[in-house]
């Protein structure tokens, strides 16, 4: 890739970032918050440790780590996370990351399939940092991943462009109920940046199809909420072999919509109505009958329905979710993503 092309890409990413510039001054993630997160989940080698999942690392976590360290403006930690990701996980011959790295296994990479949400997050974090910090090496790496995603991570089924959860194992030829998708893999805020990095990809179609998919899958069963995994072989339904839940994957869908600036009440209101109990605890829901299977009380989970309520109805975030204390990797990550968005774009929520 020519230096001129890299400079143009960085400039376009900068423009996209400026369009969603902070509404208030100050860091999106404070030094104290990042230090708490880093000390619990970032090991010296540069891998983000999923402490609730046997201490493994995965491409999703590395992507989140890049994004959060960028939002904290910590360039040293960003470079550590990127170095581990580049040398330990970007091992496939198609430019995408192997999704699972296990410190207890030999070899450490125990599943070489990719996870497209992880690939999106990695490319997005690299692109943002490359533009903000004038690092053409990061912009070039982001463009390489975006092009690889456009080439292998997207699939056209009928009139729709879909995001495959992984390049192998989810298509119509791979499963009796295929194609299978995961609506929470659509990282909507990243898609306009991918369109600048890899302009030949159908990214606008992908974004539009993702929104339509979420609206459609809310109508599966009685829950009024989308399941984590969806079969699109015929009419959308919960995919075989997975828990039939609005679960740990799908709970981040409204956060991704909001962070992308999507304030469509028709999309967001079902989450406000159905995803939390009256005390604000997040519900894991059986999509078939709408019954609660589990209640999640961690502040990193509670902040998501609270942020939805703020965006669509102007309700302030409860004091209990406005301060950050790390617990487990996943809710702690969601907590910082939600807080950083509120600070930059919804200060009236605080």
TrEMBL record:
EC number: 3.2.1.4
Pfam family, one: Glyco_hydro_8
Entry superkingdom: Bacteria
The keyword Hydrolase belongs to this UniProt entry's keyword annotation: yes
Keyword Glycosyltransferase: no
InterPro entries, per the entry: 6-hairpin_glycosidase_sf, 6hp_glycosidase-like_sf, Glyco_hydro_8
GO biological process, one term: cellulose catabolic process
GO molecular-function terms, A-Z: cellulase activity
Reaction equations catalysed: Endohydrolysis of (1->4)-beta-D-glucosidic linkages in cellulose, lichenin and cereal beta-D-glucans
Keyword entries, A-Z: Carbohydrate metabolism, Cellulose degradation, Glycosidase, Hydrolase, Polysaccharide degradation
Protein family: Belongs to the glycosyl hydrolase 8 (cellulase D) family.
Name the UniProt record assigns to this protein: cellulase
Organism, scientific name: Rhizobium loti
